[in-house]
């Protein structure tokens, strides 16, 4: 009986090495992303169990804090394309001047539905009064945007993102490096939406990882099969 030899050839071997390495690396990357997201969720949930403390320079993302300050009604921002129970609307960000400081912090007062016409903005008026605000600190990413124009010109402005790196450019005063998501007990709060600490859960990353590793295994089997098949011919 003639023995079979494994000889896939240089071109097939080169193809296999390149794509097998890519598929395997992507699988590992997705696992790392899943673990990172799991750590974010764990940190977020642990911080929610803690008592609120006074906001300070040492405050970190996901900390529960309280801040005393005065609202600035004239410089509010509506974050567009926020869907709540199938209804399109906005998240409302209102500056709060922190007491005994020249720094403002943007407060997420909650969600409000969009008017029938996009040209008509909802009423988000708030009195410029002093108030104690309790909430959770967040630092949103840029995320997916639907327009090249990220922020409109006139106040209240409409923004396509909640990222502070973008919207902080619209202010002529110093902003804190976090957004404060107000608890629903706030007197001037709108409809509260639960904070989602990450835009993709760990399970989804692990699912993508499984797909990449499956493709890697399929490629390995094809490489072995072609190596013997080619030699037979």
Gist?
The chain is built from three helices and eight strands.
What features would you describe in this structure?
The protein has 233 residues and is α/β, with parallel strands linked by helices. 32% of the residues lie in helices and 26% in strands. The protein contains three helices and eight strands, in the order αβββββββαβα. It has a five-stranded mixed beta barrel. α1 packs antiparallel against α3 (202-232). The longest helix is centred in the first third of the chain and has 39 residues, at 10-48. It is elongated, with a radius of gyration of 26 Å.
Q: On the 0-100 scale, what is the average pLDDT?
A: 88
Cα-atom radius of gyration: 26 Å
Number of strands: 8
- Order of H and E elements: HEEEEEEEHEH
The biggest sheet amounts to: 5 strands, mixed, barrel
Structural class comes to alpha/beta
Span of the ends, CA to CA: 16 Å
Count up the helices.
Answer: 3
State which percent range the strand residues make up. 25-35%
Sheet with most strands: strand arrangement: 2-4-5-8-6
- Please state the overall shape, judged from the principal axes of the Cα atoms: elongated
**Unreliable segments (pLDDT under 50, ≥5 consecutive)?**
none
Share of helix among residues? 25-40%
Keywords:
233 residues, alpha/beta, five-stranded mixed beta barrel, 3 helices, 8 strands
Which helices and strands occur, and which strands form pairs?
Layout: H1 10-48, E1 53-54, E2 64-71, E3 77-84, E4 87-98, E5 104-113, E6 130-138, E7 157-159, H2 164-167, E8 175-182, H3 202-232
Parallel strand pairs: 1-2, 3-7, 5-8
Antiparallel strand pairs: 2-4, 2-6, 3-4, 4-5, 6-8
